[in-house]
């Protein structure tokens, strides 16, 4: 589904050049769950942003179903992200002035082309599914960390994405809640044949992912594939 070829990403910083990603190659199949780990500053999040269409690479290409996503203009690439990709970040990024239900509806409202009633119904069903059905009218300030992350997952799923990108999705949660979040993501992935990419410096149970990669100093290497996956 996604193929990254020779991806490079450099930044200018303090008068010098930082090579955050160095010639990364990555293939993500339909329904595949990919885990990328490494120390802080290794380039994991930068790579995720590049393959998710959020940050243009300095070199190389990223193909989604055979199309180079960076050959698209900004508007078309934004629509591709909205319709096909979902994102879950460590800091949740919920809008404080909106209710839980409104936060989840937001990507569908941006997409347009659907009656508000349908958006609201689907968002409510997703929130019920992730265990947030009793919090629809709450503001983010009234949520625990686990509740906020479940809301963020529901928001990422509201447009039924083909790929879910997760950047340190449990970085602010304890080990018990982390396992619950990963179990939830795995269930949704299997139910919807949704591909998942997780980048984290924290350990993820091996029964979650199909393939494992390690990243250090901007270099991505494949560590292994889980038998039977």
Q: Helices and strands: which structural class?
A: alpha/beta
CATH superfamily: P-loop containing nucleotide triphosphate hydrolases
**Any idea of the CATH class?**
Alpha Beta
Q: Into how many domains do the coordinates divide? A: 1
Please bin the fraction of helical residues. 25-40%
Please give the count of helices: 6
| Gyration radius, in Å | 17 Å
CATH architecture title: 3-Layer(aba) Sandwich
Mean pLDDT: 92
* SSE arrangement, N to C: EEEHEEHEHHHEHEEE
Number of strands: 10
Report strand %: 25-35%
**What would the CATH topology be?**
Rossmann fold
> Unreliable runs, pLDDT <50, ≥5 residues?
none
Strand count, sense and barrel status of the largest sheet are: 6 strands, mixed
Strand order, main sheet: write it out: 6-7-8-3-9-10
Q: What is the 3D shape?
A: globular
Q: How far is the first residue's CA from the last residue's CA?
A: 16 Å
Helix-strand layout with pairing:
Elements: E1 2-13, E2 16-28, E3 33-37, H1 44-51, E4 59-64, E5 67-68, H2 74-84, E6 85-89, H3 100-111, H4 116-129, H5 145-157, E7 163-167, H6 175-192, E8 195-200, E9 211-216, E10 219-225
Parallel strand pairs: 3-8, 3-9, 6-7, 7-8
Antiparallel strand pairs: 1-2, 1-4, 4-5, 9-10
Helix pairs in contact: 3-4, 3-5, 4-5, 5-6
Description:
The protein is an alpha/beta fold. It has a single domain (29-56, 70-225), classed as Rossmann fold. It contains 6 helices and 10 strands, in the order βββαββαβαααβαβββ. It has helices at residues 44-51, 74-84, 100-111, 116-129, 145-157, 175-192, and strands at 2-13, 16-28, 33-37, 59-64, 67-68, 85-89, 163-167, 195-200, 211-216, 219-225. It has a 6-stranded mixed sheet with strand order 6-7-8-3-9-10, sandwiched between helices. A 4-stranded antiparallel sheet has the order 2-1-4-5. α3 (100-111) crosses α4 (116-129), α3 runs parallel beside α5 (145-157) and α4 (116-129) crosses α5. The two termini are 16 Å apart. The model has no long low-confidence stretch (mean pLDDT 92).
């Amino acid at each position: 589904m996604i193929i990254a070829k020779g991806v490079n990403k450099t930044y200018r910083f303090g008068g010098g050049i930082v090579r955050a990603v160095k010639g990364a190659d990555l293939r993500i199949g339909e329904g595949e769950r990919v885990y990328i780990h490494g120390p802080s500053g290794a380039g994991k999040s930068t790579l995720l942003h590049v393959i998710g269409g959020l940050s243009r690479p300095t070199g190389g290409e990223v193909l989604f179903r055979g199309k180079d996503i960076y050959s698209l203009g900004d508007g078309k690439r934004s629509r591709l992200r909205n319709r096909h990709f979902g994102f879950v970040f460590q800091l949740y990024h919920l809008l404080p002035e909106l209710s839980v239900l409104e936060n989840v509806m937001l990507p569908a409202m941006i997409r347009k082309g659907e009656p508000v009633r349908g958006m609201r119904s689907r968002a409510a069903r997703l929130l019920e599914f992730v265990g947030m059905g009793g919090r629809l009218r709450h503001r983010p300030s009234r949520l625990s960390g686990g509740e906020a992350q479940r809301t963020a997952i529901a928001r990422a799923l509201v447009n039924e994405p083909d790929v879910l990108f997760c950047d340190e999705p449990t970085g602010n949660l304890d080990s018990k809640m982390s396992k619950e979040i990963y179990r939830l993501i795995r269930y949704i992935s299997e139910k919807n044949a949704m591909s998942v990419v997780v980048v984290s410096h924290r350990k993820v149970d091996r029964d979650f992912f199909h393939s494992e990669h390690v990243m250090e100093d901007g270099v991505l290497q494949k560590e292994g594939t889980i038998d039977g996956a």
